[in-house]
Automatic annotation (TrEMBL):
InterPro entries noted in UniProt: Dual-sp_phosphatase_cat-dom, Prot-tyrosine_phosphatase-like, Tyr_Pase_dom, TYR_PHOSPHATASE_DUAL_dom
Pfam families: DSPc
CDD domains: DSP_DUSP19
Described purpose of this protein according to its UniProt entry: Has a dual specificity toward Ser/Thr and Tyr-containing proteins.
Name assigned to this protein: Dual specificity protein phosphatase 19
Family statement drawn from the similarity comment of this UniProt entry: Belongs to the protein-tyrosine phosphatase family. Non-receptor class dual specificity subfamily.
Keywords assigned by UniProt, alphabetized: Acetylation, Hydrolase, Protein phosphatase
Entry GO MF terms: JUN kinase phosphatase activity; protein serine/threonine phosphatase activity; protein tyrosine phosphatase activity
Annotated signal peptide: none
Domain named Tyrosine specific protein phosphatases: residues: 133-187
Organism whose genome encodes this protein: Pyxicephalus adspersus (African bullfrog)
Length: 216
């Protein structure tokens, strides 16, 4: 019976089978990579399909699911923000656009606030809170209905609303997240935003304690 040491000593690279990997690039081109020693040999895939292809699965379906956080506070994707019928159905009057590369479509129909925020873990999402919260409060004070949207309605816009509920409703993170998640199940802030929201909870708690002490 051979030991592991014997197996290792008897190892030879020449006994390894050549490994081929089919790769689809971002542009949709398909290539085959074959390792030969320490070098990689690249050739076009002979089974490349005719016509244009994509290096990812395109989702061309519209996301018109409106998350109703409160009767006057809504959450959605850019698709919702670009559908006038849906906006009218929910009686939207104000739109907070925190998407990147998405213009305000109906400037004559709604009151807009546009902030181009990148959906990256290193983006300081909390630095945008004051301006966003002021706009949301403005809509509320004017008896309006505000839609908060980003590109997919999954990370940036939900993070803004979670922060707003924590600040305005004095909810802890778990409760605020649950409210938003129940209203729009697709919600999933990126890891950086989640970490910032947890820290923001502590900041709000300290601020509330200070305010509470002053009013006693």
């Amino acid at each position: 019976m051979h030991s592991l040491g014997d197996e290792i000593k008897g190892f030879s690279k020449n006994r390894l089978k050549k490994q081929c990997t089919r790769v689809t690039t971002l542009s949709g081109k398909r290539i085959i990579e074959t390792w030969k020693g320490s070098l990689v040999h690249v050739v076009d895939d002979p089974d490349q399909p005719d016509g244009p292809t994509c290096g990812y699965v395109q989702d061309l379906s519209q996301d018109l699911q409106m998350g109703v956080i409160k009767p006057w506070l809504l959450l959605g994707s850019q698709d919702v923000a670009q559908d006038l019928d849906v906006l009218k159905k929910y009686k939207v009057t104000h739109i907070l656009n925190v998407a990147y590369g998405v213009e305000n479509v109906f400037p004559n129909e709604f009151t807009y606030r546009k902030l181009s925020i990148l959906d990256l873990p290193e983006t300081d999402i909390t630095s945008y809170f004051p301006e966003c919260f002021d706009f949301i409060d403005q809509a509320k004070q004017e008896d309006g209905v505000v839609l908060v949207h980003c590109n997919a309605g999954v990370s940036r816009a939900p993070s803004i609303i979670i922060g707003y509920l924590m600040y305005n409703e004095k909810l802890n993170f778990a409760r605020a997240f649950s409210v938003v998640k129940n209203a729009r199940p697709a919600v999933c802030p990126n890891p950086g935003f989640m970490e910032q929201l947890h820290k923001y909870q502590d900041s709000v708690r300290r601020q509330f304690d200070i305010t509470h002490e002053k009013t006693d």
